[in-house]
Write a structure and sequence with these properties.
The chain is built from 1 helix and 4 strands; from the N terminus they run ββββα. The chain is α+β, with helices and mostly antiparallel strands and 65 residues long. It has one domain. Strands 1-2-3-4 form a 4-stranded antiparallel sheet. A hairpin with an 8-residue loop joins strand 3 and strand 4. The termini are far apart. This is DUF397 domain-containing protein. Pfam families: DUF397.
């Protein structure tokens, strides 16, 4: 298993939706639920992670009244 060093995402809400991200390994971005650190880890390529972040930011812009 890779040695991921997770940090809390700046988009996380400390009381509810907590996401941790690890970017310390080349070619892999790892994401997990901070409330379940022993649970599953989603591993993405940097390109997929960038596309995900772009989609989330566009969704937030469209949802803003």
């Amino acid at each position: 298993m890779p040695e991921f060093r997770f940090r809390k995402s700046s988009y996380s809400n400390p009381e509810r939706e907590c996401v941790e991200v690890a970017t310390n390994l080349p070619r892999t971005i790892a994401v997990r639920d901070s409330k379940d650190p022993d649970g599953p880890i989603l591993q993405l390529t940097p390109a997929a992670w960038t596309a995900f972040q772009l989609a989330v930011s566009q969704d937030r812009l469209e949802a803003t009244p």
